[in-house]
Amino acid sequence: MSIPMIIDTDPGIDDAQAISIALNHPELDVKMISTVYGNVSIQNTTANTLKLKGFFKSDVPVHRGSSHPYLSTLIDAQDVHGASGMDGHEFEEVDQNDLASQNSILAMYETIKAHEDPITIIAIGPLTNIALLLQTFGDISDHIKEIILMGGSIVGGNVTPYAEFNIYSDPEASQIVFKSGLPITMVGLDVAYNSMLNQEDLKELQRMGKTGEMLFNLLSRYRSDDFDKGVKIYDVYTLIYLLHPELFEVAEAYIEVEYRDETYKGQTFVDEKSKYPNATVVKDIDKEAFKSHFFKALIHCP
Question: What is the DSSP letter of 59?
Answer without folding.
Answer: -
